[in-house]
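ok posting inputs for the D-mannose job
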Amino acid sequence: MTFRWFGEKSDTVSLKNIKQIPAMTGLMGFLDYKAAGEVWEKSEIAEYIGKVHEAGLECEVIESVNIHEDIKMGSGNRDEYIENYKTTIRNLAEYGVKVIVYNFMPVFDWLRTDLAREIPEDGSNSLYFDEAELEGMGPLDIVKRTATQSGGFSLPGWEPERMAELETTLKKYESITADDLRVNYKYFLDAIIPVCEEAGIKMACHPDDPAWPIFGLPRIAHSLKCFEKIISLHNSPSHALCLCTGSLASSIDNDVVAIIRHFGKINRVACMHIRNVKHLGHRKFRESSHLSTDGDLDMYEVVKAVYETCPLVYVRPDHGRMIWGETGRPGYGLYDRALGAAYLNGLWEAICKE
Ligand code: DNO
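and the output
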């Protein structure tokens, strides 16, 4: 059981807090100041992981080693950025990292239309998405709105320096199809997976969130079929998935439990982000507490699928609501994620004893 931590300077949650969550053994770490394409230097990794170890926690998973748009678009300086990525893989492996979570979504990482929508039943708030609200809004509008709402925290995938190039990048994507994106993805995998095999690292691809194409951009990672195509791009246990239940469940077409079982059985799940969502209408949902009764996912079945098909994967509670007056990075407060972890551990214990 792990927890996402953004580092001392940009997280409201301390390592001590994380260590005090029952059965929390480690982190999914992140150097949030690194731009896509940059090498993660050994000294930076050593400093971050050193602090985590001092706090009595492990750091075997690193999240969001972001992929430069040139690699996704198959143009520009992609070979140089791929070389940098290989160096980062080797550097992370040297400090005990076993899994790297990344995504291959063009331009945007996850997207929401409200970062703090009040939940009327109890006055807490959570991340919210309503496709109808996107109508009449361009990508730039939603980026500006997100930046205003984020309360000074940089959100993964929304780094200001990337946003400055947004218009040009969007223009370039107009001629790139989903098939082109997969060709570029294969080029990347063929280059880096042999390095991962040598270094003992698994690459874990995170799903598109929400789980469908947005703003006409090609998106290729949001269903069982999509992931089958992705997995077939390069045959290696080092080419694996990070199944995020909340991202996948944003589409009512996905049977999340079946997806976990399918890829668990063939040893292609490297880690899990577990959270729940509540559908409120067509392509309209909010993130709920982790409990089955608060959302649309059956969390018992989710955890059981992990237990039965991929019991050794790293897990983390994913986004939480803001409760008890807490303020901080949207989705990444302490309290509701800690409750989520405790609940998931409870399900795990019950399933083990059963
Ligand atoms: C959202 C996260 C994602 C994930 C990246 C991996 O909360 O799960 O930002 O870390 O897509 O690159």
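notes: Residues 63-64, 101-103, 109-110, 156-157, 206, 244, 273, 319, 331 surround D-mannose (CB under 6 Å). The first strand starts at residue 2 and ends at 5.
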